[in-house]
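With this grant's support, we have settled on a layout for protein records. One resulting record is reproduced below.
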Amino acid sequence: MTILYLLGIRIFQILVVIISPFNQKAKLWLNGRKNIFGRLSEHINKNEKVVWFHCASLGEFEQGRPVIEAFKQKYSNYKVLLTFYSPSGYEIRRNYEFADYIYYLPLDTPYNARKFVEIVNPKMVFFIKYEFWYFFLKEIHKKGIPLYLVSGIFRENQRFFKKAAVKSRKMLMWFTHFFVQNEESKRLLQSIKIETITITGDTRFDRVYAITQKAKDLPLAEKFSKNNKVLVAGSTWKPDEDLLIKYFNENKKELKLIIAPHEVHKENIERIINSIKSNKVVKYSEASLDNINEAKVLIIDGIGFLSSIYRYGTIAYIGGGFGKGIHNILEAATFGLPILFGPNHLKFKEAVDLKKRGGAISVSNYFELEASLNNFLINEKQTFETSRICSNYVKENTGATEKILNLIYH
């Protein structure tokens, strides 16, 4: 199994090298790992106490972030090393203030794992959610370093729970403790004789709840939304935007629209603007207190605003449900917005939970979107109740970070 695994790793590396001249993400992935051991040796002092957090990408970082920040506050004598596998995490968070060292994770080979762990010499290691790199985990275990999985979530169809998955399952045995999101994950781990498990929930709830306490004031968004009903469409893709803009173009109800697309490059922003019939459209980068009041559509053409934008909304639509899967719905829920999203949401526990409670609605086509939006706009009592369900759901699920810090060995 390990020979085939290594072969797969090497083939992947070769493919990245081949496509890197033509693919920016591949180029960043490759360049970010150049001379990594030299840079690590230069920056990390062997006499320092280092705790290592690893995230696959930006989404996993947001889950690990509350733990990183709480750990740093509680154990200020530790240096924090943060690693990413993907450029989409590293490039955005390369200057994250609560980490002392931020690097890409080297390719998972026996040599890289040995060299990395030798240089870093971590006192504790936290992997976030579902990152399982065989040789790194093996080396950490071999050195006797406490190893934790944070916000873990497991499903029955994962390779660990197949009958022939002896090697894959072995990786799980190397963890010191699992902090999992739900009872199902605990049951699955127990089915393969793992007992070092605590259900702590999802650390993202702590993060999004903190956002409500520290949300940025955005005067332009505040003036745009004042005394108006506003639909905030967050992290949208073209299939989402096609439905939303059709609704906006065809309905004359008093509803303003904020679109924060997942892709904010110029061509995509222009495509969205050209599909809107109203001439009262303004880009956030060009908005002013003079022109924002008359606008009917506000397009967020930058990043870093969305988590604070939701506070100015009446209803939220979360994108991605007509593609690979919906984006983060908790940032909208924490501000008490009723939530709509597309059909591909079943892998997201919070989406399923909120649907069952009546705080969110899944739409599969334009007619379902139209009916749901019209109902929210007409039925204020239902909108208020849906809002209450969403905000209460976030509050009820906070506290995972504190549980984890209270249980780790230090």
In short: The domain at 216-396 is CATH 3.40.50.2000 (Rossmann fold). The first strand starts at residue 50 and ends at 55.
